[in-house]
Amino acid sequence: QKEVEQDPGPLSVPEGAIVSLNCTYSNSAFQYFMWYRQYSRKGPELLMYTYSSGNKEDGRFTAQVDKSSKYISLFIRDSQPSDSATYLCAMSGITQGGSEKLVFGKGTKLTVNP
Amino acid sequence: EAQVTQNPRYLITVTGKKLTVTCSQNMNHEYMSWYRQDPGLGLRQIYYSMNVEVTDKGDVPEGYKVSRKEKRNFPLILESPSPNQTSLYFCASSWGGFNEKLFFGSGTQLSVL
Questions:
Q1: Residue B102's closest CA among A73, A90, A54?
Q2: What is the pLDDT, as a whole number, of residue A96?
Q3: Partner B contacted by A108 (CB < 8 A)
Q4: What is the pLDDT of residue B31?
Q5: How far apart (Å, rounded) are the C-alpha atoms in residues B27 and B41?
Q6: What separation in angstroms does the CA of B101 have from each of A21, A26, A39, A73, B72?
Q7: SS (H, E, C) A46-76
Q8: Which residues of chain A have pLDDT under 70?
Q9: CA distance A13 to chain B (A)
């Protein structure tokens, strides 16, 4: 089983839609959960950061972590064309090999159509 | 402006010709790392450094070298590049490690012919 699984999409939605992006993971030791946004030909930038379980809201973005199900989500409300990007989930902690590191999902490509 | 600067942005080379991709950050960050990004494989860590003179292997270190002689610089060295190292490379830095917010450079697109 892969440490982090993320549906690559692509996902295409109309402007104003609610977008749900998800990742599952296998290592129960992961404690820090992040979402990065990557525009085409740019480096990733941190969008949301959550420690352990729970919800975090920042404007139109909400991150949810369910450690019991090993499932994290990012919701985008009132999506805009400027939200069109690839969204990478990431989590950190102790891996199956015993080392401490950060693991990224493969990314979901989102297009918001005007 | 706080930033991570990578150079060059694009690089085309031939098999076996040594090359260096530079990375510099102006935020006095302790932690720096290198990633490669490939379609279908996502971001994979090559090497990271927790401080000056301290480096460690990531997931895919084969064929790469790094050094951390100064806090701000973390060059990636390919001693003998091969076509399977054709990829998009990112340098990143943070205050205290991978649990902190990572600042990424703009990337280096490398093609090895």
A1: A90
A2: 67
A3: no
A4: 93
A5: 30
A6: 20, 23, 18, 19, 17
A7: EEEEEECCEEEEECCEEEEEECCCCEEEEEE
A8: 1, 95-96
A9: 22
